[in-house]
Amino acid sequence: MAYDLLIIGSGLSGLFAACCSARRGKRVLLIARGIGSTHIGAGTIGVMNNPADLEAAFASPDHPYAKAGRRALEAALAELQTICTEHDYPLHGELGRNLTLPTAAGSTRQTCLAPQTMIAGDLARPEPFALAALPGFRDFSAALAAANLKACVITLPLPHAPRRTSGAPHTSATDLALLLDRPDYREALIAAWKPLLKNAPPRLGLPAILGLAHSAQAHGHLQSALGLELFEIPLLPPSVPGMRLFDLLRDDLAAHDGRFILGPTVTGQIHEGRATVTADANGRTKTHTAETIVLATGGFLHGGLAAESNGAVHETVFNLPVDTAGLGARTHWTSEVFFGPHPFSRFGIRVNNYLQPLDASGKPAAHNLLAIGSLLAGADRLTEGSREGIELATAWKATQT
Amino acid sequence: MPLVVVVDTNVWVSAFLTPRGHPAQLKLPLQPVTLLTTLTSDLCIKCNICTSACPVAAVTDLFPGPKAVGPQAQRFRHPDLPSADHSVDYCSGCGVCSLVCPHGVQIAEMNAIARSRLVERYGLPLRNRLLGRSELLGKLGSPFAPLSNIPLKLPPLRKLIEAFLGIDARARFPAFSRQTFRRWFQRHKAGAPLIGFRKVVFFHGCATNYYEPRVGQAAIAVLERNQIKVSIAEQNCCGLPMQSNGDFASARAYARSNIRKLAPWVREGYVIVGTSTSCTLALKHEYHSILGLTGEEADLLADNTYDIFEFLEMLDEAGQLDTRFVRRSETVVYHAPCQQRSHAIGRPAADFMRRVGFTVVESQTDCCGVAGTYGLKKEKYDIAAAVGRPLFEQIAEVNPNRVVCDSETCRWWIESHTGKKSVHPIEVLAEAYKGRKQ
Ligand code: SF4
Ligand code: SF4
Ligand code: SF4
Known about the structure:
The structure holds two protein chains of two kinds.
Chain A: E1 3-8, H1 12-23, E2 28-32, H2 53-59, H3 64-68, H4 70-86, E3 91-92, E4 99-102, E5 108-111, E6 114-115, E7 129-133, H5 142-149, E8 152-155, H6 173-180, H7 183-193, E9 203-207, H8 215-226, E10 229-233, H9 240-255, E11 259-262, E12 265-271, E13 274-281, E14 284-288, E15 290-295, E16 305-307, E17 313-315, E18 322-323, E19 348-349, E20 369-371, H10 381-384, H11 387-398
Parallel strand pairs in A: 1-2, 1-15, 2-11, 7-8, 7-9, 9-10, 15-20
Antiparallel strand pairs in A: 3-6, 4-5, 12-13, 13-14, 16-17, 18-19
Chain B: H1 9-17, H2 33-39, H3 49-53, H4 66-74, H5 96-100, H6 107-122, H7 126-132, H8 134-141, H9 155-165, H10 181-187, E1 199-203, H11 205-211, H12 213-225, E2 229-231, H13 240-244, H14 248-267, E3 271-274, H15 277-289, H16 296-303, E4 305-307, H17 308-317, E5 331-335, H18 338-342, H19 348-356, E6 359-362, H20 381-398, E7 402-405, H21 408-418, E8 421-423, H22 425-434
Parallel strand pairs in B: 1-2, 1-3, 3-4, 5-6, 5-7, 7-8
Helix pairs in contact in B: 4-6, 8-11, 10-12, 11-12, 12-22, 14-16, 15-16, 19-22
Bound molecules: iron/sulfur cluster (3 copies).
One iron/sulfur cluster binds near residues 56 and 108 of chain B.
């Protein structure tokens, strides 16, 4: 089948680019070797930790934000909000005014958009809050977070769940989220928790487990029945809020007749200025062609970039040249401070203003090839807090051609 | 015998650092292929994506999830030492984890191998031995159908079986077909004049042969409509039920026998095409990566085995598919079974049904729960039902006349949990050629 757009990579940028195009009636194929960034992120959209730095990013020519442009960022955020609202999972916030939300360790983080299930945790609000300790759930320490956030802790036992036979603690956030999707389990939980929350402060923070497919209902149901505002705090992976984003974008893509093949390893070829890809699975190789091919494979963490022991870095699908800021030996890649900023986090693919990756001579590597998301050079996403903003803005721009 | 591993460090380090250089694709100086499978545990970065996607870990605390029992536990497994943890037995083998892992860790395959070590050490319960012998059951039951279908429908007997064997009394078994598919095929005369030069050996598997000849008949009709010469070579059970119950010795015996019987056909220019996505995946991938069978004949078979829709899509792309379908409108729920997903070929069956005029609601549930024989076991029935629950709910909501699914055990499981008739997509395509109204 002939596709208008073939996207490689199923992280936020790949999925979002696929959805945007499919919603415009394009024939879209998304291929990915595995699931990407959504499941290990917080499920929120960070644009820039300090909104004042955004102008500088737009003005510095090598920054991915400059490649995408302000209009793409604004339009991308708006379109993501539209899609999420259609799937009953509204995202709140606006560009230029960050929300300050608590982390599971009790520190704070800045985010531009956050789902409805999290926004009552806005630390700029004056009302006091408590954090819920859920005995048996290992991935969240309310005591640790509360000590740092100067909140109180309320211990809320989880009602016995069906099929809990081993007596072992609840294993994962996914497991609890699926239980909370069910009204009967929520009723049991409300009955157990209500008496314990009589004198609670007006806001209550919970680990991010409030439902997977039906989180809006779960959140609303518990809030009204318990009579307080509830907010979720994202956890270490697996990230339930990230899975919600993945699931809704995947469903949206399917609903707009987009194709999604999960599993194959993808290799690219460029022949006479035109890119094609072959997908390898179970020893079977299949070639795919498309008007436009979009590389959304991510950085080191997701396999879009790979480093060799000798200090060579390569892009894993087309073997495009990687901009390593002239840092050859691996010893120069990292700084002394664990949380960075590390020079290697700026490594990536150089693109022109159309997001076409450049070859060694600085010319577009292929006329039908674009690169987006965390694969692009020129930004320290962790330090800036710009990962999702860059993913969305570049993805949106790539669908405008 | 302990395995002595000599690793060329350079190769090893690059295997470590190159996400693309999945060790199986590298020329490691060691053979046992299954060792390569287990070595992929070193590609794990502990991101937990697999655990968040595992349908079994999501519904039971008896199973700590793929990351824990796969790449993590792998470090503590030694050929000479007993396994520290038996929870891997709760892995259903659905393969979702291997599919979602972005770093090429072959988790499900690793789990299957770990289970076989448990079986080697502690033996296989009679129940699993029985469930693994789908072919033998078929051989025994089919000649006496419909009489042989009665015992499994008698509740008191089922209670006894549950008590003594541990096969859940609620699990529904398919009815034996009096006439096997092979029998039917022997009498069947190819309808169309065969002017084409494509040649196919149809791998029918046990389910089509003993329980659902109609699926094979539909496949033959579709293939012959496209001028393809179809043969039914000597073949036997693919061995997957034995493999997934951990009895690798028996599974390998079946596998070797299939390789021996089918490779000569491939040399003659035939390709192997099957309707059961689990049988074809076994031939294509699992003989190699789980059972560790290598060699020229094994590779020949692996490289030339196709799921039937993968094959039809190839014909279509080559402009050789008869696309004069009689269009019909019907709304169906299509559940691509986990084994179909593991082929990583997309969902060509859904695309074909859409071309016929169907409205196809695709299930996004990764696994219906039964995973071959897993859900039939007493201690796992409830887990399997919980895994399938979102699918059953979706089916109830869409309320189609039929549910379409490529895997036989899934179809039976879906039928028993939803009360809906469930068919193979090739049956839909055969109808579309005939123009038969439902
Ligand atoms: S998804 Fe892959 S890399 Fe991530 S924890 Fe699982 S096995 Fe490890
Ligand atoms: S094969 Fe399926 S059940 Fe087993 S660990 Fe992987 S995802 Fe879980
Ligand atoms: S997978 Fe196929 S051949 Fe193997 S046992 Fe099942 S039906 Fe038989």
